[in-house]
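Table 4 source record.
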Amino acid sequence: MKETEFKSGFVTLIGRTNVGKSTLVNLLVGEKVAAIANKVQTTRTAIKGIVNRENSQIVFTDTPGIHKPKTKLNETMVETSFTSLADADVVLFLIEATSEDIGRGDSIILEKIKEAKRKTILIINKIDLVKREKLLNLIDLYSKEYNFEAVIPISATNSKYKEIILKEIEKNLKPGPAYYDVEEYTDQTLRQLAEETIREKALKLLQDEVPHGIYVEVEKMKQRKNKKGEEIYDIEATIYCLRDSHKGIIIGKNGEMLKRIGRSARIDMEENFGLKINLKTWVKVKPDWQSNDSIVNKFKLK
């Protein structure tokens, strides 16, 4: 019997803001590689998550959500999303089941997919929120626009869809080598993961009190052994915001909010990194960071 050929490839997730791309990539990878918060523009850069299977390696790129850019940062984010299409072997185009028709944002993405001429799987998320008839209408609407390899209705929070999507992707990959070590699940550095985790916790805990103008930078990251001989990471990070009023909200009364953000991030990092974390956080005001080239360039596709 012929041995199954090993396949590999790059899969880009694309969609409007808040359609559930980061939730889906975390589900498929089985690890937390992308920040999840119920806010637009949570993902700012193209994050890679790696899935190693018996006969394949799938490298996912979770891109920033498509939105109308208002700052240099926003422009960079949208540019990153569209640039990643050209490098994809397979595209996962995520839309919401609650859509009545093909909106402006989704139309723009469809045009970019048509230009890229990439194999594309349409993923319809949040199907638990609509009736079957509405879902079938939406499938019909999109199927007339592009020849999708498959249409998969899902709820990104439900693990039962994981295998269905991975098998469909595998079907559309070509034989190829493993690009990353089988032990790896992301190409992000621990420093980037730490920054993402702190930012996600801040977004979740602050709710709508602070607009999306925060940026986290890890200033120091050092590994050492404590008195018990356990491995521990000392991490010092600064949360930058746009205004003094935001700084007050992030710190909170008697520093309570900042403590909550730090505690929540530390617990997450200890679980993800597999060792103890000693985390110190500060808050500084940087009014123009969204237009600062040296910062914005960090979010460009490498």
